[in-house]
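Components:
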Amino acid sequence: MEALKNALDFSDFPRIDLVVAACGAAFILAFPLFPHSSFAMATMIQFLMFSLYGMGWNTIGGYGGQVDLGKAQYVGIGAYTTAVMLIRWDIPFWVSMPIGMSLAVGWSFIIGYPLFRLKGHYFAIATIATSLVLLDLFQVWEFVGAARGLEISPIKYSPPDFLRLIFKEDIYYYYIIAGFFFLGIFYINWFRNSRLGFQLRCIKDNEDVARSLGINVHRAKIKTYAIATAFVSMVGSFHACYIKNIEPEDTMSLDISILIALMAMLGGAGSLWGPIIGAAVLIPLKSYLKEWLGAQAGLLGIDLIVYALIIMVISAVEPRGIWGVIERIRRRRN
Amino acid sequence: MDILISSIAAGVLIGMVLALVALGLTIIFGVMDIVNFAHGEFLMIGMYTGLLTAKAVGIDPLLALPVAAAVGFLLGVICYYGFVKFLLRGPMVAQLLGTFGLMLFLRNLALLIFGSEDRALHHGLLVGKSFDLGMGVIIPATKLAAAGLSVIAFLAVWLLMNRTKLGKALTATSLNSQAARYMGIATERMNALAWGIGGGSVTVAGALIVNFWSVNPFVGLLFTMIAFAIVALGGFGSVPGALFASIVVGLIMEIPGIWDFLTYTLSWDWMINVPMTSFKYTFVYLAYFIIMVIRPSGLFGWKH
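Structure:
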């Protein structure tokens, strides 16, 4: 009960934040009711999915300050668990998603134990290495379709199928992921004021001081890593049902890991709203750049050049992200 | 037995070339504690430089090495003054993502200019020739020349670092940049020089590798990861460590080939379906992971 109360307690934010957040929430809930193109719908679903990835990353990367560039492996574990279980044994989404989450969390314990003995650059590169090892494995593993990947054919089921999450119209997917999105916000709101959240911020500021205060640093990091993993794997399972065609290269490549970390940093790592702002800016930008410059102008790779320039400018000019700028303006005003 | 010998020979030769690839990364890391994700993209640019210079001028690709070195040096210095200088003020996550942005930029610029198809050298002094050492050991002349030249380039950089005043200033900057500044060393210029040497050495390596490896805009990431593994094994910031570690990594990359040969000759049916060569680079990543966990400072490392 106490936890629920804390999750719904947003009273430490200034009122203007809450007004903007409420407007945003109303927009997300009302968006499908207005006329929209299917491209806009797909972009919105991508935005909600990547906000959730970013929220997961933000627990370990933002609050904890551990730069994790291997989140894509958990997207892969979640997506493959759901797809394999649905195709081979006809197990519905709502059962396979928790199983995928526990598999991902189990794997995160196995690699997290040695990983968190490393710090800084070494940790970041090691997370990439583990992610690439798993990618190589999935590309030759015949049971999960090797490099061809898996395809969920919607003909076998009769949509709308709420158990297996097979729909014809995107609007169902939209409201399901929006539900996850709001639950995710409440969870992170609880997390940031929980015992673990405070421990993590202390670890980020100074690890030696944290240890001297009696915090079990290694254990706190592994626990948070598991939370981040659960978030990412959950959305990975949804991704499998939504996209219906998963390949190792699409679900677990390094680009996905980087995009997740980048969004959180662009919005402002270590704040509740940061990853959401980052996703709201970056995902539409990325998909519209691809649509206009990449597909229509016929110039190969030019959308990614613009995207890369944006990354470079942000990291050189304002590494604390959009939220950092807002906070600085506020501090100056007071 | 002969497969063992020829694998070892191939591993040592490729290792010598990889030493030059990793050299730039370890110098840059040693001097300013920044991990350059765009390292493999520098290599890719070196490969294109070697290939296109050789084709445009009609000379042997090995003679295009000075051009590649000049291009790499300029590229490194420009990247430093135009971009990396600003990254150094930010937190670590900004540095990692910033150099990743640089990598994405260079890769897609190459894609826009050169297209996505594989290109390879078909003509050249050494292309297609090989030495037969007997006992079934055949060494391609391109690989032998690349290994020899890369060791020469490696030694040149090592001499520059250890026997000249400039190199001593560079070493001083990497040991303690603040103290170096008090001693009157222009550390800003030393940082730029580190990027210049790093870029120059890796583009030379690229121009050597293009003799026996086809090039496309996506070739970089693989070499970046291999270079990370080498630098981790040798110790971040250690130059002799990089040479030793790259030969070890070159040998690790040959293990899957030997393994496949063994399963084939001994006819272990349960293994034949899974060719280990598809895990060629997985072994390198695993080696990185295990080395980092067991000995975080590497074999010869001094930076933490």
